[in-house]
Write a structure and sequence with these properties.
Strand order of the largest sheet: 2-14-16-15
Strand content: 15-25%
Distance between the termini: 31 Å
Length: about 400
């Protein structure tokens, strides 16, 4: 992927902005389309995201036909798709879920080893555990991950040692077409997973959720087509809320998923953010940020992806803020990029301590991953001088039409 540059200047953000469909939901819904030969139609689909375009390209490479326009995506299959994804372009971590779906439907699959953000120890042993526990053999072969079973996968009890989003999703995708009954213990229940389950049940699956305790699936022989609306992106929503607060702006965030962000909003309100609920929106008034102390954790807690955004919020406050990432300890490489802009910080064990109250200055920085890149945009919005962000394509992986939305709020 070639480098590209994004320039950001200090500004107050004001106006209205609409939250796009959730990246982390839509990608899984695309994967679920592999489970059926029928038509799958998605509405509020964030087609403009780079990761969505990669996934759409993967589906087309296997033989699906995809039509996309203005938040609408239609996925069809005119002839049986290939059970091998032979792909030499940039990969995404969703390839692991494609492997599960191919194996569930065709009893075998082959996909490129996963890509995505390098967030510490994100191996795929849990995905292998899921497939092997359901009767598949899994192996690596020249840059590809392969799986094969003798006939349909076999339902079983799956005990996840940690609340892994990806492993929970793969167990669901494998279980819906497996023979018999599958029970997933200690799943990670979050909005994107519930959205996946909702669509699969519309397609004829039989999935029941018992909170964070377990998910029960009665396998079926086939799934049918579906029309489904993607839930709003909670990461984009919380980003605009923080952007409004730190720039002293006044933003109405349309399509704001308030019920998915109750815990992060409690911490932000207690740290000075001034907001109130509108009709299908959240209105955030510019305010004075106070120091913030958070630790990330499973939903409904604060998502690990949110902590770079909270770091910028802390940098804009007077005093020390503290962040502990319990999911990916030490995921603080982005802090060094923010330090180039004047953010003072220290790392004490697994804790990032941000020493706020210093005026940030524009600088040349690099987006190390998707959320780190968005944190640099936030910092650029409150910095004196121009901020030049290298590898800004990372940000477009998860924020649809980000440049256009920023321009509309800055005018």
């Amino acid at each position: 992927m070639k480098k590209n540059i994004l320039c950001v200047s200090k500004t107050k953000l004001e106006g209205k902005v609409k939250v796009s469909g959730a990246k982390n939901a839509a990608l899984k819904l695309l994967t679920a389309s592999v489970l059926t030969s029928d038509k799958v139609e998605l509405f509020d689909s964030p087609n403009g995201l780079l990761d969505m375009q990669v996934h759409i390209g993967m589906l087309e490479k296997m033989g699906k036909t995809c039509y996309q326009k203005d938040g609408y995506l239609c996925i069809e299959e005119s002839s049986t798709i290939s059970n091998e994804l032979l792909w030499d372009e940039r990969s995404i971590r969703n390839s692991l879920l494609i492997l599960g779906s191919l194996t569930a439907r065709f009893s075998q699959g082959k996909v490129p080893l996963p890509g995505g953000c390098p967030l510490g120890d994100r191996k795929y042993d849990l995905h292998i555990q899921v497939l092997e526990s359901m009767g598949a053999k899994v192996w690596e072969e020249e840059g590809y991950l392969c799986a094969k079973s003798n006939g349909r996968l076999i339902g079983c009890e799956i005990h996840l040692p940690i609340r892994s989003t990806g492993a929970t999703e793969n167990a669901i995708l494998c279980g819906v077409l497996a023979e018999g009954f599958t029970k997933i213990w200690n799943p990670h229940i979050r909005p994107e997973i519930l959205d996946l389950i909702d669509m699969l049940n519309k397609m004829g699956a039989n999935i029941k959720v018992y909170g964070q305790r377990s998910i029960e699936i009665e396998g079926v022989k086939e799934l049918q087509g579906v029309k489904h609306k993607v839930i709003p992106d909670n990461m984009e929503a919380i980003t605009w809320a923080i952007a409004s607060a730190i720039t002293g702006g006044d933003i109405e965030i349309i399509n704001f998923p308030l019920e998915h962000l109750e815990v992060p909003l409690v911490f932000l309100r207690e740290s000075g953010m001034n907001f109130y609920k509108g009709e299908r929106s959240l209105i955030v008034k510019g305010s004075t940020p106070y120091p913030i102390e958070i630790s990330t954790g499973p939903y409904p807690g604060i998502n690990s992806d949110m902590q770079p955004l909270f770091a910028v919020y802390g940098a804009c406050s007077q005093g020390d803020s503290k962040i502990v990432d319990l999911r990916f300890p030490g995921r603080y490489a982005y802090a060094e990029e923010l330090a180039k802009m004047g953010m003072k910080y220290s790392i004490e064990g697994d804790m990032l301590k941000i020493h706020g109250g210093n005026q940030l200055q524009g600088a040349r920085v690099k987006a190390l991953d998707l959320r780190a890149g968005m944190a640099l945009i936030l910092a650029g919005l409150v910095s004196e001088g121009e901020t030049i962000i290298e590898d800004a394509w990372q940000i477009s992986r998860g924020y649809e039409n980000i440049t256009e939305k920023l321009k509309a709020l800055s005018s």
